[in-house]
Specification:
By secondary structure, the chain is an alpha+beta fold. The chain is built from eight helices and four strands, in the order ααααααααββββ.
Length: 219
């Protein structure tokens, strides 16, 4: 009876260790895949149904905060400007945060294609890196063509961000030892630098020991 009890306790301990340690092992696998430029493994570790709206929400919230700071732009552009900006962000995220593009981005270690540059442009616009004077002038001269205003700003930011992305890919440092921590029983974060950008990756437990990336906190 004692042997049976000891065996049960041992099994429970093993199960507990596996349960608690599973996100750490997943983080190790992700780091190994990134270092090996295994884009397919990284792409397979993502829950796109959650990651896409989470990134879109971060960027649209940033954009809303910026527009609140510049009421003149909002008054000139009206609701159409906000809607066009939100649509541009959502479409940029959908184009960039999908398996093929993630795999390519990891495999090439940062060589951005058009979809990635569009997402970088959306991040730049939402982070208040727009030339406000030019934006106001465009809104005034192209009233009724708000989509055209957004497209012009997007192209300006894409051209600018393309150079930034190339420099970061070539010179930016990666964290050797990311910070790992639980944020809940089914929530785990990996924090560090990727190509010089500070990022926090949030994973969610799906099943007993499986974990998927559901959010990336942008700088």
């Amino acid at each position: 009876m004692k042997k049976l009890t000891s065996l049960v306790i041992l099994l429970l301990l093993i199960i507990g260790v596996v349960f608690v340690g599973s996100p750490y092992y997943k983080a190790y696998q992700l780091k190994e895949a990134y270092d090996a430029k295994n884009g397919a493994a990284i792409a397979d570790a993502i829950d796109y149904d959650q990651l896409q709206p989470n990134i879109s929400r971060q960027l649209t919230d940033k954009m809303d905060n910026i527009l609140d700071q510049y009421p003149m732009v909002t008054q000139l552009g009206g609701p159409a400007l906000t809607q066009a900006a939100d649509d541009f962000i959502v479409n940029s995220v959908k184009g960039a945060v999908q398996p093929d593009n993630i795999e390519q981005l990891i495999t090439t270690q940062g060589q951005a294609n058009t979809a990635t540059k569009q997402l970088a442009a959306a991040w730049a616009i939402a982070s208040n890196q727009v030339n406000l004077q030019n934006l106001i002038q465009d809104v005034i001269t192209q009233r009724g063509n708000i989509d055209g205003v957004i497209q012009k700003q997007m192209q300006i930011m894409m051209d600018k961000q393309a150079e930034v992305l190339e420099q970061q890919a070539a010179q930016g440092n990666d964290t050797d030892k990311p910070t790992l921590s639980y944020c809940g029983i089914n929530c785990f974060t990996i924090s560090g630098q990727v190509k010089g950008y500070p990022l926090t990756i949030e994973m969610q437990r799906q099943g007993f020991v499986n974990w998927k990336i559901v959010n990336i906190v942008l700088p």
